[in-house]
């Protein structure tokens, strides 16, 4: 406790019953848009740890101002989670006891920590509170054996970028794209000549592990995601020609795959939190409403309309996008159109996904440029001197791969 009325900042673990109201006040004060411009506000639906609770290990910390009169006020917070993911790959002999001369790539895993939701009340910034929260969270990461820590931020968030790079030792690592598609008042037509199959979580797990486990950031506990109640299913698209009307099972599918195919899974973020666009002028709101009215009145015209984003809305997140073959882009678009219709049926406002800027299937993902982000900044830091595998070395210095696997639990 400080002397002469001095205020002390205490960083401690979040206590749900005691801290919920204080945390919500900080979130509300920190939400973008306090300057009167168009902005997005987030409602965590009364659960401050909703964005990390589905990970195998997670923690939320709060920064509390304590005066010599025992007055307490939460002025900052941070969330963190840990998972094991693919950081690279190495070659292994594809044969018993190495008798076969062929090699196959196998994933190299690393224990990765993720920092998200760092908030400091505007009235208490430039006091070192953000740095103290990050440092304490990193101590917990190290205690749990995490080898790397990373965070994501908007490129325009100069304060966050400066804190993590200049003061916390993080370096720019990846720049994926966030692609956002509004959910129209009409159903989207799916290209003819394409079959879309829902597959079981067990088949989805097998498909992902056998074809995508060497993709960067692939989670080793993919089964926990696929069996989660928020997962709405995994879907495979193939050309209708030469393919049966029923799903053959993952083993038969992979033993003799079609020339082209595509896959994706849908995560119901609407059940985790909602968003709301505020600060829009009456003109913008009026134009959006008119577009919806026209779309509902004449759905066969397929006129793109702006959904009701000026009240709380939810979205679905598409993850695990992948595919092979010369027609994979067209099949990916069909799956995204299918996902749009699922979102419409469930009352969502947006369909969102995030992919590598080098992802070949990116051109098949419908999105509105104005709503999307061409460069989401990911920063990474190595927490210790040991590496998960000598064949990969320091992951922070590795080149960017073609694809990344974005864990929907991080959204």
TrEMBL record:
Belongs to the acetyltransferase family. InterPro entries: Acyl_CoA_acyltransferase, GNAT_dom, Plant_NAT. The keyword Electron transport does not apply. Residues 9-191 form the N-acetyltransferase domain. Gene3D superfamilies: 3.40.630.30. It comes from the Eukaryota. GO terms for molecular function: acyltransferase activity, transferring groups other than amino-acyl groups. PROSITE patterns: GNAT. Keywords: Acyltransferase, Transferase. This is N-acetyltransferase domain-containing protein. Signal peptide: none annotated. It comes from Protea cynaroides. It holds the Pfam family Acetyltransf_1.
């Amino acid at each position: 406790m400080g002397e002469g009325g001095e205020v002390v900042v205490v960083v401690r673990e979040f206590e749900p019953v005691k801290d919920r109201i204080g945390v919500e006040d900080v979130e509300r004060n920190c939400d973008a848009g306090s300057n009167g411009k168009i902005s997005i506000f987030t409602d965590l639906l009364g659960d401050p740890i909703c964005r990390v609770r589905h990970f195998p290990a997670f923690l939320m910390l709060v920064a509390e101002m304590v005066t010599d009169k025992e007055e307490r006020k939460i002025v900052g917070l941070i969330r963190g989670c840990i998972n094991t993911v693919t950081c690279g790959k190495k070659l292994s002999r594809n044969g018993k006891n190495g008798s076969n001369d062929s090699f196959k790539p196998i994933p190299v895993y690393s224990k990765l920590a993720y920092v998200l939701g760092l908030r400091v009340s505007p009235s208490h910034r430039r006091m070192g509170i953000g740095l103290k929260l990050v440092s304490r969270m990193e101590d917990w990461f190290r205690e749990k054996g995490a080898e790397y820590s990373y965070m994501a931020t908007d490129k325009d968030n100069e304060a966050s970028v400066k804190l993590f790079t200049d003061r916390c030792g993080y370096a720019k690592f990846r720049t994926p794209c966030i692609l956002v598609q509004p959910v129209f008042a009409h159903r989207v037509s799916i290209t003819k000549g394409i079959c879309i199959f829902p597959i079981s979580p067990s088949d989805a797990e097998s498909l992902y592990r056998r074809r995508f486990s060497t993709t960067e950031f692939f989670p080793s506990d993919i089964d926990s995601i696929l069996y989660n109640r928020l997962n709405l299913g995994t879907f495979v698209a193939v050309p209708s020609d030469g393919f049966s009307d029923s799903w053959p099972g993952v083993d038969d599918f992979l033993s003799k795959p079609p020339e082209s195919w595509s896959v994706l899974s849908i995560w119901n973020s609407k059940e985790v939190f909602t968003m709301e666009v505020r600060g829009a002028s009456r003109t913008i709101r009026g134009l959006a409403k008119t577009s919806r009215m026209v779309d509902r009145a004449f759905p066969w015209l397929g006129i793109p309309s702006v959904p009701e984003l000026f009240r709380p809305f939810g979205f679905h997140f598409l993850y695990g996008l992948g595919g092979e073959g010369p027609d994979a882009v067209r099949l990916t678009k069909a799956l995204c159109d299918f996902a749009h219709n699922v979102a419409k049926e469930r009352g969502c406002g947006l369909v969102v996904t995030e992919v590598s800027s080098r992802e070949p299937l990116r051109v098949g993902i419908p999105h509105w440029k104005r709503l999307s982000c061409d460069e989401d900044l990911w920063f990474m830091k190595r927490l210790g001197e040991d590496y998960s595998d000598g064949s990969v070395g320091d992951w922070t210095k590795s080149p960017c791969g073609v694809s990344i696997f974005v864990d929907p639990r991080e959204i």
